[in-house]
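Appendix B: complex inputs.
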Amino acid sequence: MEVPMPSAKLVEQPVFSLPVDSEHKAKSIQIFSFAQPHMRALHLSWISFFTCFLSTFAAPPLIPIIRDNLNLTKTDIGQASIASVSGSIMSRLMMGTVCDLVGPRYGSAFLIMINAPAVFSMSLVDDAEGFLICRFFIGFSLATFVSCEFWVSNMFTTKIMGTANGIAAGWGNLGGGATQIIMPLVFHLMLHSFHNPAFTAWRLSFFLPGTAHIVVGLLVLCLGQDLPDGNHSTQLQKQGGDVKDGFNKVLYFAVTSPKTWIFFILYGYSFGVELTVDNIIAEYFYDRFDLNLNTAGTIASAFGLMNIVSRPAGGYLSDCVARRFGMRGRLWILWTLQSLGGLLCIVLGLMSDLTAAIVAMIFFSICVQAACGAVFGIVPFISRRSLGVVIGLTACGGNVGSVLTQALFFTSSSYHTETGLIYMGVMILCCTLLIIAVYFPQWGGMFFPPSKSVSEEDYYVSEWTAQEQEQGLHLASLKFAVNARSERGGYCSSSSADPEGDHPTADGLGLSMWKSYSH
Amino acid sequence: MASSRMLYLILVATVATLGVASCVEGQVLFSTLPKSLVVTAALPDGKPIGEVKTGEDSILVKWTVNSTASVDAVKLKTKLCFASESQVLRGWRATNDDLKKDKTCLYDIATQDFSRTGGETTYKLSKSIPGAKYFVRAYAINAEGKQVATGQTSPNKVANTFTVIPISGRSTSIDIAVGVLSIFSVSALFGFFIFESIYLKRKKAV
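Resulting structure:
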């Protein structure tokens, strides 16, 4: 849809199918559209993340067959489970840097396609060591989470950051639940329709996630675009677009901000808990309530499948509260959701009746996943220059939290799984109190009001040195800062005029399901 | 809200009824079964079993009834059971006295008609049997389907056990397919990078 511009300020004025802000980030989401660049990026990022979750958690539903084929003991299985989530600790950190330097499209496509051989190699393992090594390397692909969040943060404006991030990450996390249903189905297909012995059928099943890696990687490369204005490498420097950045500077600003480390821990106790429960919940229902494997697997998949609404809901709630209360509202809603999650974890451990346990598990999954969504409603605001590294560090924290909780509460035989769940819930409640320490000078913290002398521009431009500002390298951060004024909330001076003035405002095609408040 | 409360109550009632129902059926405890059957397992030519391969080898299982015992049974089931050393650190193969929960004998050999004079069966090992140490156990089943007598080749699940060598599940075609697809994935990726940088250079040159 062409909108003729009366006075073009720039040489080219690109036209988008969604309303955009000054950085050409979309101001609304149309979930059924695949239009370049915003919605296509959203769909490609969640699909690529879904595929990686599919392959990382493809082994657990087939464990009863694999453990017989490879002669595994309980210790072998447990160690491989820990390896599957610890592999991505380093890769998530590296992916943050890669995204900052070469862009999310190359980053995620590279990772997915390089990881495909590891997925295929699972078909060749013969013993416990091979199984552990394979799960470890496949786990590296969970770093696509970072490129997913980074890509979405590039494409959608601050007011709907939480919702967009929540949709992309939540639907990606869905892969962990979907795989518990898909892999056994593929296995049965190989076993019965193609008449293979069981020990061959499970190996053939792994060709599905492997092929998905290749297909999705090619889709991302061919159809994707890093930024609303083009790809990272083709950005015209005279327009002040993204430029090659010094890795050391980027890392410095991420690591020296205490907020980064607080969110490292917070995400460890929301997403980390989710990963841990993904690994242990089927066994928990199987053992404690004497269910058969298929029933336990179906209940386990329900935990992961709640992601389809709960994580986007967390992001959406964060955005809703931010409209009225700004960043302080976002912090309070995060604390509420995560503390509720901790309480429900304790309740889950205490339930000895099957129905009550399932109900508790479902509410627990909703709260924990919504808390994950709410975390990423705040993380993109911590730093603009080092966005990738901050996302990478937070995501790392998720995996470290998972390794820690599995090692502390679910490996020792001195107490049962239900006691481990109770202890984990208590630890969630304690770690969530750290949110009190989060303080944005321009917006405030949970209990502290904002400092009157610091503005958004001051905060984001302070990440660039005076020399770099002279060269104009900070312009992208400046644009972001102006758009981030939305985080002051409704009680501040609310001129409804767009601070940036004229820009293309073509109406979206079709139904728009979420809209930020209209200008 | 009233309807969801009703639903919750119905769910609880159903679970409770099922729970009670499962207790009504009598539990058969392995320790209470008389050891009235004598079972032997050997290779088809009569030699003792050392190692057998699944999918290729067979075993000959013979069973008779101990002369002093009286067994009222209709069927006789023989099963392949895990030796103690194959149950270590593997809770899914754990022994439980309640035969409904017992996981020691997961693989059926044959179900035959019961006869006081005994019987035998030759069993070709199925490809789905995992590699482990095993012994053979027989249950005499009465008309209601409950076990009434038992016997096994190993006295204590340690002595007189034999090893089963499983299939690996791998085949040359899987190996080749994995190699081909992995190479395709990596070369498609680098091919795309090279193609795109050439394309961009041409675009800049224009």
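Residues 34-227 of chain A form a domain with the Growth Hormone; Chain: A; fold (CATH 1.20.1250.20).
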